[in-house]
Amino acid sequence: MAVVPYKEKEASKKEQVAEMFNNISHRYDFLNHFLSLGIDILWRKKAIRLLKADQPKQILDIATGTGDFAIEALALNPDRVVGVDISSGMLEVGKQKMKKRKFDDIIEMQLGDSEKLLFDDNTFDAVIVAFGVRNFENLKKGLSDMHRVIKPGAKAVIIEFSRPKRFPMKQLYNFYFKSILPIIGKLISKDKSAYTYLPESVDAFPDGQDFLDILSEVGFKKTECKPLTFGISSIYIGQK
């Protein structure tokens, strides 16, 4: 059964995820950096460095949110970065951010469904996703579409939460994620469900080798997993 933010509602996971991000969009950036102690910024930088040798000119950022990963991708000196998200609230915050920082000529923010991307086959030189794939309603469908829109030889670089396996990080992580994070998230964002959904969606996500197997199944080759910060997150790489 799909893990959803609002269990009392009949709407699909996709609709609920969009609603949740619309609800928390005004506090999302602050909460993201605050709850991860700013480590998420370092994770994004590390992921982008993995694409440096490829020098991608057209980059697609899926589940772009407010565009932090898209901005990080500018370090690669691309011609264009397209950020796609299903939450209009998050995109609105992102568009304001791009305008303010004068990135709106190179970063394009679009409303769109990551499982039905409105791009031709073989369009992009790289696809990036940060903390978005576990929110897909149909994981394989979303990953297949990513594979479809990148050029042969191009890479997908995905950051996602994973579950630490070793003592004491495993215990600390579980306590923080399940007891502390929902309380802080509720206080600041006023949406309790968003931050109980987060640990539940991470628990349900097929991390590590399981995720690499799914990437291979949908057509990616040379798949790799690079654990980050004691296994709290991982970077996954796959090539078309």
Mean pLDDT: 94
Q: Report the top-level CATH class.
A: Alpha Beta
How many DSSP helices?
9
CATH architecture: 3-Layer(aba) Sandwich
Description:
With 240 residues, the chain is α/β, with parallel strands linked by helices. It has one domain: 3-Layer(aba) Sandwich (Rossmann fold), CATH 3.40.50. The protein contains nine helices and seven strands, in the order H-H-H-E-H-E-H-E-E-H-E-H-H-H-E-E. It has helices at residues 13-24, 28-35, 39-49, 68-72, 88-100, 139-149, 169-189, 192-204, 209-217; strands spanning 58-62, 80-85, 107-111, 124-130, 150-161, 221-228, 233-239. It has a seven-stranded mixed beta sheet, with helices on both faces. Helix 7 (169-189) packs antiparallel against helix 8. It is globular, with a radius of gyration of 17 Å.
What's the gist of this structure?
With 240 residues, the chain is of the alpha/beta class. It is built from nine helices and seven strands; from the N terminus they run αααβαβαββαβαααββ.
Which key features would you list for this structure?
single chain; 240 residues; alpha/beta; Rossmann fold; 7-stranded mixed sheet; 9 helices; 21% strand; globular
